[in-house]
Amino acid sequence: MAGQLYARYVPPVATAPVAKLASDDLATQSSATPTSIKKAKDKRKANDTKAKPSLKDEGRDPMQDEHLHTKRKKRAREAEDGKDATRKRLKHPVAEAPNEQQDISRSDKFKAVFSKFERSSRITEAVRGSGRVEIATEAHTSATEPPVELLDLGPIPQPEQPPEVEAKPTFSALPSWLADPIKISSSARTTFSDLHLDDHTVKHLGKLGYDEAFAVQAGLIPLISPGKDKHMGDICVSAATGSGKTLAYMLPMVESLKHSLVTKLRGLVIVPTRELVTQAQKVAEDCAAKTGLKIGTAVGNQVLHDEQRSLVRKRRRYDPDAAKILNDKALQVLKSGSLEEDELLEDCRDMLPGHVPIYESNVDILICTPGRLVDHIRSTRGFHLYDLKWLVIDEADRLLDQSFQDWTEVLMSQLDAQKPEGLLSAYERMLATLDRPKARKDLTKIILSATMTKDLAKLSALRLSRPRLLVVGEEKGGKGGTEQILTDNETFDLPKTLTEYALSVGDGSKKPLYLLHLLSNNVFVDSPAEDQAEASQKKPTSKLPKDSADSSSDEDSSSHEAEDSSGSDSDAKINQHTAPPEDPIAQEARSRPRLIIFTNNNENASRLAHVLGALDSKFAAMTGVLTKSSTTTVGKKVLREFSNGKKSILIASDRASRGLDVPNVTHIINYDIPRSVVSYVHRIGRTARAERSGEACTLFTRTEARWFWHEIAKGSQIRRVDKRKVIRISINLAEHVSDEMKSKYVAALEGLREAVEDRKDVPTS
Ligand SMILES: Nc1ncnc2c1ncn2[C@@H]1O[C@H](COP(=O)(O)OP(=O)(O)OP(=O)(O)O)[C@@H](O)[C@H]1O
């Protein structure tokens, strides 16, 4: 029965030929005559007889054969019935028509389904083959195509997705002043006289060795000095380490204040560490020489009372009315026994009758750490910021990360406070009587860093007014271009005179030996000082091993974070411009290679110094250690010796990574990999300052390699001049380290272990 063939689901590929066969069969049978049918029957009989094997021949069970025979007969009968049915249908076509139409429509349906399969198969083939998808037309999918073999169920082939176009936002998430900064090329130079500084100042700068203005000075000074380019608002500055930011803000501040007749606190500079207070003080004194301006400092190491007296002086004024009010108040306090108003009693204690105390600032410019500033705001009688004209926050990103004592909040509310009537000048009193909206305070805020943050949440704490951002950086595509590569992300420029190296130290277990090899063969190329006198006769040279260098990268995994904070005293900066004349030996000592080795914590610094000294006693004599745990006196001494060349090596924690300006530091070695990109930028920024050349080498272990190459060497956060690469160097320890040195190393480690276990003090300098 042909109809039954379509009554159940049969996969299209299989059914198509069957359907064709069935219709062929129909065609054949429609032209058959009774005679031909009989002939066919006879033929089949003959075949059956022929096919029937002789029982004798085969020797099989007659019962089984009989059963087989019956089965064949039954099948033949069934076939005959089928043909009869076909014949009947042919005789009565109308009666059978609905069934037949149904069959034909089903056949069409299967053909359609089949053609769909064929199409999708061709698309799959096309996607797999050329990757291109060609959609065939209906006509093309006709029966001319060979039948497609259907496979198991699998994922339906999908057309290849068009490549995603990298969307570049047409807007910036930053406010316009951050997204569209004032740009200046780091190679820009100008004379100080072109910056409209007076002749006396220009001459004075010349004497200090500042012949022309660096880019940041050329960019910032006009923006904050009187003149047509002055910006009436606050300024943020982003410029590389060692680019001269300190002079850039100090000079205009001193220039604007030097004509003041009365000493008032008008300039406030906030920096994160005591070392930087000392450095900035030096620059301020250089600039303010012979101007009569008084520079003061406030850092945590002094006795607060002494510092208070140095900042504010107390005087008497005859004013009977005011004296009566003050005395009445003091009496109330005495009666109530309250100690909160103790200062009021203090005020009256040494006053003559009819007199009141008045407080005056002893300084025009104060340079301080934020913690100490808060101390003075809260507890120094007569200390106020009502007259402030300049607020400078250097290393701003670091300071804004520190929230101790709520220093920004305390400072800002002090700046916003209204000046008490008693402190108003005659002019201010007159203005106060006028019914006018309050004029903006004449205060300029200058916020600076080599790693300036664009974090609005942090910057908003400074309540900037009409701010602009000044960026000093490399030009896009080298010199001549004007547009800088700026993104919404924070990106930092490195000094263009810096060369960077990276040294793989395997698993790190032999790091001291790698360091020793670097020091002996690449930094102190001639043998390191046997003693300082002998070394002073030699002319040192220093270059990292460019012969063994290549700039390939190497990657594995790892990452770290955050810098440690610091704070201690030291007269860090030895300003080359104002240093007294030196004897030749001291001069030579200064010209020797000088390097800072950075570790990630105090312990590593102390231990490294111990091992290095044990490996080679010559290095013990040349090395100083500066960590957070160094006392103020030790820190001062170490920095002084390092600055004047008595010590050539300074092993330091990140305490020394920010702002430290020791001239002629020739090398930086990151013995421990820095914990962040920002930390790396500041550490290596201790060399290659003020356009002098410098080299920095980072030691990385296998696990640190990936982070180093991804984030530091090739990361998008750091911009290098002319896309300069970090040069990879390698040292084959097996070749270079003698057996004697190896056993020394084992002994040094053993000595260190014993020292640590016995809780002996590991020598620190
Ligand atoms: N115009 C100039 N000519 C020559 N030397 C200069 C000039 N301006 C600054 N310098 C010198 O450049 C050095 C670095 O200056 P400074 O300490 O201000 O850098 P900085 O930008 O604040 O660096 P950092 O971000 O690391 O604190 C100092 O030794 C300073 O004396």
From TrEMBL:
Residues 226-470 form the Helicase ATP-binding domain. GO terms for biological process: rRNA processing. The keyword Translocase does not apply. Residues 45-68, 77-87 have a biased composition (Basic and acidic residues). One of its GO terms (molecular function) is ATP binding. Residues 190-218 form the DEAD-box RNA helicase Q domain. GO terms for cellular component: nucleolus. Its EC number is 3.6.4.13. A motif (Q motif) lies at residues 190-218. It is found in: Nucleus, Nucleolus. Its main location: nucleus. SUPFAM superfamilies: P-loop containing nucleoside triphosphate hydrolases. It is an enzyme of class 3 (hydrolase). CDD domains: DEADc_DDX51, SF2_C_DEAD. RNA helicase. Belongs to the DEAD box helicase family. This is ATP-dependent RNA helicase. It comes from Pseudovirgaria hyperparasitica. The lineage of its organism: Eukaryota, Fungi, Dikarya, Ascomycota, Pezizomycotina.
